[in-house]
Amino acid sequence: MRLRFSRGVITIAIIVVVLAIGISAVLYQLLKKAKPLAVPEAYCTVKTDDGVLNLFPEQAQISATIAAVAARRKLPERAVVIAYATALQESKLQNIDFGDRDSVGVFQQRESQGWGTKKQIMDPVYATNRFFKALEEVDNYRKIPLAEAAQEVQRSAGGYAYAPHETDAKILAAAFTGRVPQALHCWYPSSGKTPAPRPKTAEARKQLTRALGSTAIVTKRRGWLVAAWSVAHAEKYALTRVGYQGATWSNGFEVEGWQQGGQAGSKRVELS
User: Fold this and answer.
1) For 249-253, which contacts have Cβ atoms below 8 Å and span 24 or more sequence positions?
2) Do the strands 43-48 and 51-55 form a parallel or antiparallel pair, or are they unpaired?
3) How many domains does the chain fold into?
4) Which residue of 2, 25, 26, 141 sits 20 to 30 Å from the alpha carbon of 122, by its own alpha carbon?
């Protein structure tokens, strides 16, 4: 039996289809523009030719501090790699206030073993300086296996455990020492309901000076070290922009990595 529809029914059907398509298009555009319901937590990413690492902001800040202290002491990148591998094993690059017996801090140093007071050890700048001072006393530390060098400093029960972190430590060292430019990107959420806090650029530079000493940019590598330190501490000091050598990091969720723009010949890392 062949069904026949009146012109009125056909017209209504066409109208329904057109409305459905229109509503779908409007909903698509609204969803496309809408912000995600779940705002992700702050994060940092390190990218070099050797790999990619995801870090919590605290881990990035500790990494930046270790590199700055090493630069102040004029240590080679190998020393930074050893320090990172040690900190990854001991604390996962976090400044923790607990550990085995009285071990605390980034390197799990012990007050009872003469590393300093607990308050001192919980200061990453102090703890890193103490670690490097001990490392510098290790004969031929630049050439011996990483685990041996780290164990000479730490005197750990499981010195073999440092070696598996060497690859990640090399990625971190390439980025935070400034050898690989634009290797660090961080993002942190900012509330749209209240005015954004003013950048604490003076405080940031003061703390950088404490770790690095002079903040004068005498080489591009040192400039990128300062830039990486600044990006790692962006959330802590409410920084939304870091610029150096014609490239700019900005705190945008949809912005991935550094973008071209700024003063290409500048010898100063710009913070705002």
Assistant:
1) 249/182, 249/185, 249/186, 251/186, 251/187, 251/188, 251/190, 252/187, 253/40, 253/187, 253/189
2) antiparallel
3) 2
4) 141
The verdict on 203 and 232 lying in the same domain is: yes
Q: What is the pLDDT of residue 47?
A: 97
Residues 208 and 265 in one domain: yes
Identify the pLDDT of residue 191: 65
105: left (phi over 0), alpha (psi -120 to 50) or beta: left
Q: d(Cα 223, Cα 230) in Å, to the nearest integer?
A: 11
Q: For residue range 11-33, list pLDDT tens digits in order.
A: 555 554 445 545 544 444 544 45
* Predicted local distance difference test score (pLDDT) of residue 184: 98
Reported as a pLDDT band with limits 50, 70 and 90, residue 264 is low
Q: Which helix (H) or strand (E) holds 54?
A: strand 51-55
**CA atoms of 243 and 264, how far apart (whole Å):** 9
Of the candidates 232, 260, 191, 265, the residue with the CA atom closest to the CA atom of residue 67:
232
Boundary-marking domain end, from 176, 206, 223: 176
Q: What is the pTM of this model?
A: 0.84
Domain housing 134:
60-176
Token digits of residue 49? 């030719």
Query: Alpha-carbon distance 211 to 66, whole Å?
Result: 8
